[in-house]
Design brief:
There is one protein chain. This protein has one domain. The chain has 2 helices and 2 strands, in the order E-E-H-H. It has a two-stranded antiparallel ribbon. The chain has helices at about 20-40, 40-75; strands at about 5, 10. Strand 1 and strand 2 form a beta hairpin.
């Protein structure tokens, strides 16, 4: 999916912020495997790590989009 840039009227690839959920999933699962290996309860910790990774990734995507929108609004006011 291509995103049109409002200011320059050219097409750009989608923002990298949309990848934050995927990265959160991967890193959360990795942390879950590590903690699960240490504690001996890998099934529980993979699930906890994955859930927390998705939550943190979604939060980062949301906050990055909000910051970008605020910046665009300030630039349009000038």
């Amino acid at each position: 999916m291509q995103v049109k840039n409002k200011k320059q009227n050219k097409t750009e690839p989608p923002e990298s912020n949309s990848n934050n959920v995927g990265l959160g999933l991967v890193f959360g699962s990795a942390v879950g495997v590590i903690v699960g290996s240490i504690t001996g309860n890998i099934g529980l910790w993979i699930a906890i790590g994955t859930a927390l990774g998705i939550c943190f990734g979604a939060a980062l995507s949301s906050s990055a989009k909000t910051l970008e929108d605020d910046l665009d609004n300030k630039l349009e006011e000038k």
